[in-house]
Amino acid sequence: MTPSGTTRGRTDGGGAGGGGDGAPGGPWSAAWELLLPAASAPARGRGRALQSALREAVRSGRLAAGTRLPSSRELAADLGVSRGLVTEAYEQLVAEGYLRSGRGAGTWVGEAARAAAPVARDLAPRGAGVRVDFRPGVPDLSLFPRAAWAAAHRAALDRLPHAGLGYPDPRGLPELRAALAGLLARRRGVVADPEALVVCSGVAQAMTLLGTALRARGHTAVGVEDPGSPEHPALFAASGLGTRWLPLDGAGLAPGPLAASGVRAVVTTPSHQFPSGLAYTADRRAGLLSWARSVDGYLIEDDYDGDFRYDRAPVGALQGLDPDRVAYAGSVSKSLAPGLRLGWLLVPRALLAEVVERKRTMDLGHPALDQALFTDFVERGGYDRQLRRCQRAYRERRDALVAALAECLPGTEVTGIAAGLHVIARVPARYGPQPRLLAAAGEAGVALRPLSDYGSGTAPGAGPVPLVIGYAHLTPAEIARGVRALARAAGP
Ligand SMILES: Cc1ncc(COP(=O)(O)O)c(C=O)c1O
Fold first, then answer.
1. Residues 216 and 268 in one domain
2. Which end of the chain is more exposed for a tag (fewer CB within 10 A), N or C?
């Protein structure tokens, strides 16, 4: 029953996707990564897992609009599941608008899927026709400290010996690891052993590296928060791992579903949950750690915006409580610029050798000059100054957003405001339902992301419409203009 090398062989050879039904093989090759773990899920949840994996393949863009799917018979045979399960999954996704069925035989990825596209769209250049873009994901790139960066570049070049331009230690330059260890211990309360620190291309590469190490230790799937980042499943799929969406309650990851999930590693954003914005309670943080110990597993802490907390000091990282159970990942993507592709990973001892070897075989180490530059920037206090500057600007923008929502869309409940670069705004039902609100916003040139785009969620029915509103990249004036335009367009 388990999809095997045979399945992959057929796909790679143009089988399932490129066979008699005429569907192209390329998109299917990418989608397999997501479908295979679902096919080997426990029988009771296999149908749901398949639906959710297929939905994710469409949302993440792995299956583009217009792609023709294999027949239910072919897909069932290739995945080693019953045909009924595939038919049911197709029907469900047709009903939800992700797929469409044509006259006669045939199922395609629907055009509507474009509207529910992946966070990669958040990360992509902002589109034409968009006047105010509230999609979360990027900081204010105009705050990038160009002059200080250029000075650090010059200083790094002057200081770097010729030998420093050779292949670097795959963990990163020792002086950068030492500087980062000091910074992270001071700012985030981590236990930062420079020997266990790996400099990498952002949180994204940290996830891939950890995924490979976990795969090598027999893990087949990783738990991810629901709602959560749509990037995580795709990143783990690249390491051959499936993902299980695990629900949150008001305090963090719900213990029951976590315990029942069968996974032994879970990705978590405890300081400012992405995207809901909740901060895990102390009890729930302790509960997560005892769960990890009880299953001999790991927590993967994605500290993507942990530095930005407005109303009190940042909550220390979970990793500080048990560095042997918690891998900690962070980057400069929210504090400087995502285009730098610069991040770090603190690795539990048991996984360190595997992670370092994987980093070596992946790219022979992070670019040496970038590392030398960043070392200089951190050592001279440039990074601390940048964080203080952003913190001031973003607090002001958050306040502008909260005020504009209260004035223009009264009754909107705003949560997750204490930290980070985005909030959750629950717009009252009278402005909905969701598809109408999003369409009206789009016509008015206001780009928005609903909460239902993150995780396994479906669009809410008649209730308030939860939106994930990014504000850090907009000035207070732009924020006010965008909220006014939204209110005018959506007005009941
Ligand atoms: C929750 C979360 N984690 C990780 C990332 C990726 O971060 P990086 O640019 O460091 O790879 C993002 C990107 O926006 C994110 O939102």
1. yes
2. C
